[in-house]
Amino acid sequence: MLKLLLAFAALAQTVPSDPAPEDWKAIPDNEILVMTLQGGHQVHIRLAPRYAPAHVANIRKLAEAHWWDGTSVYRVQDNYVTQWGGGDDKTTLPPGVIENPPAEYEWPGFDAVKSVTFAKPDSYAARTGLSADGWPLANYGAVSSLTHCYSMVGVARDLAPSTGSGAELYTVIGHAPRPLDRNIAIVGRVVEGMQWLSSLPRGTAQLGVYAKDQVPTPILSVRLASQLPEDERPHFQYRATDNPRFAAWIKARENRDGAFFTVPMGGVDVCNALPAVRRAQ
Amino acid sequence: MLKLLLAFAALAQTVPSDPAPEDWKAIPDNEILVMTLQGGHQVHIRLAPRYAPAHVANIRKLAEAHWWDGTSVYRVQDNYVTQWGGGDDKTTLPPGVIENPPAEYEWPGFDAVKSVTFAKPDSYAARTGLSADGWPLANYGAVSSLTHCYSMVGVARDLAPSTGSGAELYTVIGHAPRPLDRNIAIVGRVVEGMQWLSSLPRGTAQLGVYAKDQVPTPILSVRLASQLPEDERPHFQYRATDNPRFAAWIKARENRDGAFFTVPMGGVDVCNALPAVRRAQ
Predict the structure, then answer these.
(1) B16-26, pLDDT tens digit by residue?
(2) The pTM is what?
(3) What's the top EC group for this one (chains A, B) (predicted)?
């Protein structure tokens, strides 16, 4: 059995540099969305109000109105996205929800937001990095955007100029579909329970939509953590990136070593270096 | 319902340039591995003997010996790998299977193999590309390797200098773990049935190994297509990349347009541009 366990260890993604206690920062309760699926499985999403304030404002109103309760996860396209929320039976949005918010896809500049910059450009962006509070970023010269990494949450929309209300959301369950960056609003990241969205049966109809003979997964409820009773409220922390311990972690991600990795890469893709988020201790 | 369908269309990965009939080339029957899981679900893997001949020779011998029959899929780590094959109950390899083949991780040069080169370097390699027969490649100056894209199949191994016999295999079910490139043997790509490996319940023990209270998925049989009776034998074709139709497809992947993509990227990640493989018509 030893050989087998070593084989597992050899494939492990290790974290060579541990954070100090002060590196863990509280995520506000109104920036955590709790989606409860049939079976009681919960998906926790960290919201990104700093980057998509109008879309996140919509999402908060939708949660406060219990608008998603009784909707479903109805699309699972392999190596692409799992999508959920309002279908054609939910055409009316709650009061105050804007059907087409501003296109919150990018912002001018990069340095004002980024804390970490990765060693190399990637296939899409001149520079990639992380904000001090742990969001993945890409810079395209004059503008920057969040990046469509695995587990990031975006707003499904119709053809441009539609920007999507937030009533239909998706998360990435495969290789980062970065061509969506700058073309769609990213509003958050699944920080716990991703497996309940990534391991669902794939849809067999066009684009991974569930066919008539498949059963969409019912959504029992979606709430902001701040809407829940204090004793039921989950509390999360993000790992800050603006400290030497995190810089050492990135360096280790860029140059894997140890008894398994005989060839270091000298770089790492932003989507292979997302900072940890954990439950408050 | 129209709005909803448009929303799906907006998230679709489209193929703007169609291949000509002559672009489809037959994959030899002894380069297709057919794994049948409990429930009759089949996973078809295209083997890469050109890049890892000794490891693929082992895999063919293991299939011919029916060695995997009765083993299981015992590890599913979210956003990383699904792993299967010989456990500690399968310590003896069939005659002729080499326990540690040569380290078939990379080869000198790039131009002799590549047909397509992508527009930009990525976070890992100076150049990335595709072979004429559709394999994803990365060039690191003097040497090149296959790349750990979603659905690629590799050989689990112990710590170096172990190279892995091929008795334990894995496939990528998340964002490409490219730091594994040049450190492990890639032997193929799942070309049909990926969903049967990507949608399995995630393992709850360390590194995504199934815990005692979880049930590994039994593997009923693994055979080369060439081992099967002619009337049961699946036949696959790959899309050749050395023609102007494929070049146009890559150009379209690098610069998405149409009514949804308002900002083209000017580049594409090799793992977002894997050539199509299909059943022979």
Answers:
(1) 589 999 999 99
(2) 0.94
(3) isomerase
